[in-house]
From TrEMBL, chain A:
This is Aminotransferase. Signal peptide: none annotated. Residues 27-372 form the Aminotransferase class I/classII large domain. SUPFAM superfamilies: PLP-dependent transferases. Its EC number is 2.6.1.-. InterPro entries: Aminotransferase_I/II_large, AspAT/PAT-like, NHTrfase_class1_PyrdxlP-BS, PyrdxlP-dep_Trfase, PyrdxlP-dep_Trfase_major, PyrdxlP-dep_Trfase_small. GO terms for molecular function: pyridoxal phosphate binding; transaminase activity. One of its GO terms (biological process) is amino acid metabolic process. Its cofactor is pyridoxal 5'-phosphate. Pfam families: Aminotran_1_2 (PF00155).
TrEMBL record, chain B:
It comes from the Archaea. The keyword Transcription does not apply. One of its GO terms (cellular component) is cytosol. GO terms for biological process: response to amino acid. GO terms for molecular function: sequence-specific DNA binding. Keywords: DNA-binding. Residues 70-141 form the Transcription regulator AsnC/Lrp ligand binding domain. This is DNA-binding transcriptional regulator, Lrp family. It comes from Halopenitus persicus. Pfam families: AsnC_trans_reg (PF01037), HTH_24 (PF13412). Gene3D superfamilies: 3.30.70.920, Winged helix-like DNA-binding domain superfamily/Winged helix DNA-binding domain. The lineage of its organism: Archaea, Methanobacteriati, Methanobacteriota, Stenosarchaea group, Halobacteria. InterPro entries: Dimeric_a/b-barrel, Tscrpt_reg_AsnC-like, Tscrpt_reg_AsnC/Lrp_C, WH-like_DNA-bd_sf, WH_DNA-bd_sf.
């Protein structure tokens, strides 16, 4: 086949290699998983089954069923976000589709798109597929991996047209406070930069509530917020996300969506609607469980002398492994059967770190952290 | 959330957690955890720690029944007194005063159905205030103590994903 340059130019994902290494063994405890270990709340699952029993297997309106958009609008009041379900919300096939649509709707060929790194791996390729030029903005452990004005300036981001912002962050577990967001927002206003804010982990914050950059002064009209049900509602496989933004941007995204997707999966839309209607307590229970694991993992890392800032969001810790992260991860897998993802996979600034997912049971976390401790002890003895 | 509440949340998930692990999960220091547990026990908030057992799998003969009890109160005798008399029998594993068609729901365990029915007819029914008993034998237990029985769910997630 004659493949397009567009696709042959795309880099291979660094995750792939670790997936293959881990899959080749059957005794692996994996802390490399980027999705919840829970199943979706039972009420949401029964709503999906019920919708199938009623024969709701046709397309929905392009933008998603009206009740779902209304429920999403209500839900977002908790983040001080107000969007009109009529023309400011688009339901998509996973948050991934929303990110892709936002990039294709906002980015012209040659446009510069700033992406803070380390971050989720899809934005760079998404920008390239949209014809834009990704500009890496490394964040630093010294700032707890928050994006700062200084880092934006150091990377030359004033020439960016768009910024992709992902907090709470995968892979670092970092969150941004209102004050930190205000500085980034000021930079964006000064240099006329629009923002795609991937807030898929908004519900998973610990000790403080999520704040959105879209609620900063004059940012609503220049921001597309992406969110979804995968993480908070443990619905990754149902593929349901959405975008919130000014009608102009949502219209543009919907124009692509209606040609390429038509509508998000109908069954998943009914599951999501029930999730919003009745599953707050299940989500809260999952958040408390993640919080216990988060504290456990963080405290164990400190005990074993693995330097790690306290993550405040998502379900990842991002310890400093004190050297070559890829080699560390490979050797850890080889000698102890524990899979983690090397930080450098997530871009500049991630090197020397490991992404450790605590979306796994406490029992497994205990075994895995004990093995990591053994690994560190052995390494220290045999330099 | 209060310290005690945090400790309770861990204990109700897994009562066998060590003090060190509870401390790690709650962010409290070990002394504070010990203190919270001691206080919970002293005040009768935590009455005990028990395993959640699937007796069918344990291969032990054991029969459980839920027994509905209707009572008639008189001037001298209230629910408390009757409950106290019933709860003293070791075969009564749980006892609740409930709303609805009957007064008490008792969970009774024994080695056999005869054992349980003998206990109900010889020990419980003769209590003067009890006017009626209805015994429901447990045929199958699907969930107990908040834990679902049956086959454990396999983790079918990809071992490494972005």
């Amino acid at each position: 086949m004659n493949l397009s340059d567009r696709v042959t130019d795309l880099p291979e994902s660094g995750i792939r290699k670790f997936f293959e290494l881990a899959e080749a063994r059957d005794d692996v405890i994996s802390l490399g998983v980027g999705e919840p270990d829970f199943s979706a709340p039972w009420a949401a699952r029964t709503a999906a089954i019920d919708s199938l029993e009623r024969g709701r297997t046709s397309y929905t309106s392009n933008r998603g069923i009206r009740e779902l958009r209304e429920a999403i609008a209500d839900h977002h009041r908790r983040y001080d976000q107000a969007y009109d379900p009529g023309d400011e919300i688009l339901v998509t096939t996973g948050a991934s589709e929303a990110v892709d649509l936002a990039l294709r709707a906002l980015v012209d060929p040659g446009d510069v798109v700033a992406i803070h790194e380390p971050t989720y791996i899809s934005y760079g390729p998404g920008v390239e597929l949209a014809g834009g030029e990704p500009l890496s903005v490394p964040t630093r452990a010294a700032d707890d991996f928050a994006l700062t004005r200084e880092r934006l300036a150091a990377a030359g981001a004033e020439r960016a047209d768009t910024l992709v912002l992902c907090y709470p962050n995968n892979p670092t577990g970092a969150v941004m406070t209102g004050e930190q967001l205000a500085a980034v927002a000021a930079f964006c206003r000064e240099h006329d930069i629009q923002v795609i804010a991937d807030e898929i982990y908004a519900a998973l914050t610990y000790g403080r509530d999520h704040e959105s950059i879209a609620t900063q002064p004059d940012m609503r009209e220049r921001t597309v917020v992406v969110n979804g049900f995968s993480k908070a509602y443990a619905m990754t496989g149902l593929r349901l996300g959405y975008a919130l933004g000014p009608a102009e941007a949502i219209d543009a995204m919907n124009r692509i969506h209606q040609y390429t997707m038509l509508s998000a999966p109908t069954t998943a839309q009914y599951a999501a609607l029930e999730g919003l209607r009745s599953c707050d307590s299940e989500v809260a229970e999952m958040v408390s469980e993640y919080d216990r694991r988060r504290r456990f993992v963080h405290s164990r890392f400190r005990e074993m002398g693995l330097d790690c800032f306290e993550p405040r969001g998502a379900f990842y810790a991002f310890p400093d492994c004190g050297g070559d992260d890829e080699r560390f991860a490979e050797e850890l897998l080889e000698s102890q059967g524990v899979a983690v993802v090397p930080g450098s996979v997530f871009g500049e600034g991630g090197e020397g770190h490991l992404r450790v997912s605590y979306a796994t049971s406490m029992r497994e976390l205990k075994r895995a952290t004990d093995r990591i401790e053994t690994f560190l002890t052995e390494r220290r003895q045999t330099p | 959330m209060s310290d005690e509440r945090e400790v309770l949340d861990v204990l109700t998930t897994n009562a066998r957690e060590s003090t060190a692990d509870i401390a790690a999960q709650t962010g409290l220091d070990e002394d504070a955890v010990e203190e919270a547990i001691a206080s919970l026990e002293r005040r009768g908030v935590v009455h005990g720690y028990q395993a959640v057992v699937d007796w069918d799998r344990a291969g032990t003969d054991r029969v459980r029944a839920i027994v509905e009890l209707n009572v008639e109160l008189d001037r001298e005798t209230g629910y408390e007194e009757i409950a106290d008399r019933i709860a003293k029998f070791p075969a009564v594993e749980a006892l609740h005063l409930v709303s609805g068609d009957y007064d008490f729901a008792a969970e009774v365990a024994g080695d056999s159905m005869q054992d349980v029915s003998g206990f109900v007819s010889e020990q419980v029914a003769p209590i003067p205030e009890i006017t009626q008993t209805v015994t429901h034998y447990v045929m199958e237990t699907y969930k107990d103590g908040g834990v679902r029985f049956g086959d454990r769910d396999e983790d079918d997630r990809l071992s490494v994903s972005p």
